[in-house]
Amino acid sequence: MSNIYTIWEEGEYQYEGAFGFTPNLHTYLHEDDQTRPAMIVIPGGGYRVVSPTEGEIVAKKFYEAGYQCFVLTYTTNLIGMEPLKLQPFHDLSRAVRFVRANREKFGISEEMYLCGFSAGAHLAGTLAVHWQDVEDMNAKYQPVSNRPTGVILSYPVITTDKQLAHGDSFIALCGENAAQEELSYFSLEKQVSDQTPPMFLWQTVSDELVPVENSMLMAKALKDAGIPFEYHLFPRGAHGLSLSDEVWETGDLGEPYTMEQTLNIIHAVKSGALPLPDEAKEQLLAAFAYMDPENYDPDSPRPASGTAVKEVAVWPELAVSWMKAQER
């Protein structure tokens, strides 16, 4: 049974575009006496939304492989109200500490893995390279480590290089006119050190949204720093393949809880609490009409996610083998 946990306590979380949302974790836990490694799944969405295509179905896949799984719904910037800056990074750092601080309750062992997708992979990678930068404001979490045991980066956003970057992700994160120092901080291939945890990376060569050089740059940086990693390049497939299996392909993704902040913003726009120019309002409501809570029917057919690529669907098995190797 899935439960939800808010990771920030009252008064700790402030973001102008939250509209009542607070970052949270949904759980997928084995209810037995066995302690198991933990995994936090971090969906992508260009730092604009938290995509349901990379949430519940991924957590269930790794749950079936024996992991205690959590899906993080973190802060995003749908309409460009306020650059996110370090907020998602702090959300993830707190999420790791929150899970570890509740080890006995959640039945987890020492091992803590992150599995991020696209911009969610950038977020996972940011914690991997900058975990030492976050001293939690809450004294009860300060003694708890936020360093992952290992990190899985799926078709990751990595670099801020103008020729290779997924520019919209960094606009949402840093704003339109970010300083070079800030962009360098978030260009992960420049930030790998001997304190970076091991990584598993995969991407398709034909990725049309995030150039494949992103994962290549990260692999090279890991190699140069002597950090253990495993890297898989698949020859074909579009961006955002998630599990690339039949479940993903049909759009049967479970409850769209990762869209909580987005739905709050849609409600605020419709109610007039968040005024937008008429054209921007129409575009926003049209883009998310299928998720309108007034018309949402959980039993109606879901739109297809895309076309699965059979050879890509093996990546979770490869990732499990890699994680088991880290635990030896």
Question: What do you see in this structure?
Answer:
The protein is of the alpha/beta class and 328 residues long. The protein is built from 11 helices and 8 strands. It has helices at residues 56-64, 87-101, 103-106, 119-130, 167-174, 180-185, 213-225, 246-250, 260-271, 278-287, 315-327; strands spanning 4-6, 24-28, 36-42, 68-73, 108-117, 150-154, 199-204, 229-234. The model has no long low-confidence stretch (mean pLDDT 94).
Quick take:
This protein is α/β, with parallel strands linked by helices and 328 residues long. It contains eleven helices and eight strands. An eight-stranded mixed beta sheet has the order 1-2-4-3-5-6-7-8, with helices on both faces.
Secondary-structure blueprint:
Blueprint: E1 4-6, E2 24-28, E3 36-42, H1 56-64, E4 68-73, H2 87-101, H3 103-106, E5 108-117, H4 119-130, E6 150-154, H5 167-174, H6 180-185, E7 199-204, H7 213-225, E8 229-234, H8 246-250, H9 260-271, H10 278-287, H11 315-327
Parallel strand pairs: 3-4, 3-5, 5-6, 6-7, 7-8
Antiparallel strand pairs: 1-2, 2-4
Number of helices: 11
Helix content: 25-40%
Major beta sheet, strand line-up: 1-2-4-3-5-6-7-8
- Globally, the shape reads globular
* Secondary-structure class: alpha/beta
β-sheet strand percentage: 5-15%
N- to C-terminal distance: 30 Å
Radius of gyration: 19 Å
Name the average pLDDT: 94
What order do the helices and strands follow?
Answer: EEEHEHHEHEHHEHEHHHH
Number of β-strand runs: 8
* Poorly predicted segments: none
Q: Which sheet architecture does the biggest sheet show?
A: 8 strands, mixed
